[in-house]
């Protein structure tokens, strides 16, 4: 009896671990082994390249992704692995809820490399799903984006060294990253004084790797290219429509009416200022603000004449913030007046939130527009919170300014909500769809931001704060605001990586044009699925306005802002679009032959002028506030450039 009880006790102790063991050791499926380069940081902070082993198994299951790393990575790879599985299923048209993915990652030292291994993991999952072999002489680096493109990463030179060190013949890198910049430090002793000079040097990774190691470095655009080089197999790319319409004429009437109303408001406020008894100093400051608003209104009129109606609405929005600040400040005679104005802003926010929350969402187009509206309501709340902080600290000027901004931001939420109603479809969509999408975007964005800060510190701007804000929105149940905040952080992070160290206009223009093409393709794909991506088309047009401005004034900052909005357009075009899925298991190709490395002619040809140089201090990449521009004093800081409707 005691013996039986002992056996039973042992069985009960082991039982809880049985499911885990079974999950880690599937009895069926396909396994693919790949090597991927990563970056490790030494004790003195130096970045070095290291090779990592990936063992990827895909087996019938219920949609789980299991990841084991050793030693523990500085960046959690779970989000990157989950995204890799999603993209693999999307590319192949496979329902990944019917499979489990098991990924074992082993390196000789702690690594920084969550998102940079995303492309490799996606290739491995695709190969395992299809039963394809991969060539062990091919390695790659690059994050995987939701649309299947290979995103930029850091540490290219270090990773190329690691690839050579483990015998790779071909090293795949993200398109546009063949030119890297390194810091060279020289020490010179003169009369007992040590002089240290640091210079920035441009390195062509393709030429350098070929000359030093005989390693062939190839830039790739997307996962379709990557799979081809690893397996020799071509997966058909989705065909973009031959004709893509990016037309914001659906906003024409709104833009015309808004321009007229804003112009009338400007004239009323100008007369109100002239009739006031404010001091000379206050009069001068307020008049300067109204003059700037007039300049922006002229830009709105030009946009209307050019048929750029979203840009016109955004310019009106920028102008109204300044006009309302002047208008409201003229009403301030005491702190009670400030408090009254803040309450007016709060009432408008409540009214806008009630309008937005009461909408029944029907169709993807409406879902995108309402999601944008909900995000703007939350932004307005945040601005009003800041206004109250200024109020309690006795700073009534900034309190009124933020209240004016909050009021106008809340009004734009109503515009987007009503716009969504115009494009209502037939089928109702649950807000749980937004919740699930928001969770994915937060996790993926957090991964990329943490990766950047692990390698470059906070040079990309305070992206972590945006992620924290997105998390707070999510915890509060504000899923649309969480989604867009995380998406915008990720886009800024990707543009930072893609432009790191580059101040050569021709190179930046080439990159911007590539982003523009990708955005237009994404819009076309959405349209081919019967969706009118109103938000994406609006952002695309807004990016064009900055592209035009950059051509006229030679501003690199405007180029970077155009990149930001083209990327916003690409991301939002694909929001909530469902991927086709196959309900039957894929036929398995059990070929045992290792695929040959096939390098098409011209694969290593430079894709840009490769003549860019960087001056000291340009490693910051993006300006600290991409969506803000130089303004007139403290009143206008951040009030103009990049402030979208």
UniProtKB/TrEMBL annotation:
Annotated Lon proteolytic domain residues: 30-233
One of its GO biological process terms is:
proteolysis
- Keyword Cytoplasm listed? The answer is no
Statement: the UniProt record of this protein carries the keyword Zinc: no
Q: Which UniProt keywords apply?
A: Hydrolase, Membrane, Protease, Serine protease, Transmembrane, Transmembrane helix
Q: Low complexity bias: where?
A: 607-618
Q: What is this protein called?
A: ATP-dependent protease
The family line of this record is: Belongs to the peptidase S16 family.
Catalytic site: 116, 159
Ranges for region Disordered: 598-618
Subcellular location(s) per record: Endomembrane system
Assigned GO CC terms: endomembrane system
A single MF term (Gene Ontology): ATP-dependent peptidase activity
């Amino acid at each position: 009896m005691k013996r039986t009880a002992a056996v039973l006790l042992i069985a009960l102790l082991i039982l809880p671990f049985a499911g885990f063991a079974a999950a880690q050791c599937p009895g069926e499926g396909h396994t693919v082994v790949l090597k991927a380069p990563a970056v490790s940081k030494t004790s003195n902070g130096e970045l070095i390249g290291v090779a990592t082993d990936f063992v990827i198994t895909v087996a019938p299951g219920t949609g789980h992704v299991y990841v084991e790393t050793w030693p523990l990575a500085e960046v959690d790879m779970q989000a990157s692995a989950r995204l890799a599985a999603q993209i693999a299923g999307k590319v192949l048209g496979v329902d990944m809820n019917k499979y489990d993915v098991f990924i074992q990652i082993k390196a000789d030292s702690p690594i920084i490399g969550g998102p940079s291994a995303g492309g490799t993991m996606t290739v491995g999952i695709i190969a395992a799903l299809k039963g394809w072999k991969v060539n062990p002489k091919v390695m790659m680096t690059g994050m995987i984006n939701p649309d299947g493109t290979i995103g930029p990463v850091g540490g290219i030179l270090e990773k190329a060294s690691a690839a050579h060190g483990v015998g790779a013949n071909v090293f795949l890198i993200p398109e546009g990253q063949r030119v890297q910049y390194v810091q060279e430090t020289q020490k010179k002793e003169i009369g007992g004084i040590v002089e240290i000079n640091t210079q920035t040097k441009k390195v062509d990774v393709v030429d350098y790797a070929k000359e030093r190691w005989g390693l062939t470095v190839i830039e790739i655009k997307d996962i379709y290219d990557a799979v081809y080089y690893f397996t020799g197999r071509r997966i058909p790319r989705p065909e973009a429509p031959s004709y893509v319409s990016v037309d914001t004429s659906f906003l024409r009437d709104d833009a015309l009416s808004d321009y007229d109303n804003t112009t009338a408001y400007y004239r009323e406020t100008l007369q109100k200022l002239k009739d006031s008894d404010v001091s000379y100093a206050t009069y001068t400051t307020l008049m300067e603000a109204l003059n700037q608003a007039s300049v922006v209104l002229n830009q709105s009129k030009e946009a209307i004449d050019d048929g750029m109606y979203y840009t016109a609405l955004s310019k009106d929005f920028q102008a109204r913030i300044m006009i309302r600040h002047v208008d409201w400040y003229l009403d301030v005679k005491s702190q009670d007046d400030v408090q009254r104005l803040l309450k007016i802003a709060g009432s408008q926010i409540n009214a806008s939130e009630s309008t937005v929350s009461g909408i029944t969402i029907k169709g993807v187009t409406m879902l995108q527009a309402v999601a944008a509206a909900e995000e703007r309501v939350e932004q307005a709340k945040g601005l009003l919170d800041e206004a109250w902080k200024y109020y309690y600290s006795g700073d009534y000027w900034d309190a009124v300014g933020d209240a004016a901004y909050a009021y106008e931001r809340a009004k734009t939420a109503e515009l987007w909500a009503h716009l969504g109603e115009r494009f209502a479809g037939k089928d109702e969509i649950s807000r749980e769809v937004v919740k699930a999408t928001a969770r994915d975007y937060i996790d993926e964005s957090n991964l990329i931001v943490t990766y950047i800060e692990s390698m470059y510190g906070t040079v990309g701007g305070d992206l972590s704060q945006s992620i924290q804000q997105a998390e707070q929105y999510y915890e509060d149940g504000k899923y649309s605001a969480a989604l867009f905040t995380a998406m915008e952080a990720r886009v800024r992070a990707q543009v930072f990586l893609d432009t790191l160290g580059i101040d050569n206009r021709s190179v930046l223009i080439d990159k911007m044009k590539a982003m523009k093409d990708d955005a237009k393709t994404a819009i076309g794909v959405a349209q081919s699925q019967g969706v009118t991506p109103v938000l994406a088309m609006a952002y695309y047009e807004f990016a064009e306005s900055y592209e035009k401005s950059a051509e006229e004034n030679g501003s690199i900052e405007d180029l970077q802002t155009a990149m930001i909005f083209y990327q916003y357009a690409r991301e939002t075009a694909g929001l909530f679009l469902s991927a086709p899925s196959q309900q039957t298991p894929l036929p398995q190709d059990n070929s045992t032959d290792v695929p040959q490395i096939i390098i098409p002619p011209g694969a290593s040809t430079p894709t840009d002028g490769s003549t860019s140089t960087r001056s000291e201090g340009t490693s910051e990449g993006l300006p600290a506030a991409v969506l803000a521009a130089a303004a007139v004093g403290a009143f206008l800081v951040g009030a103009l450039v990049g402030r979208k409707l």
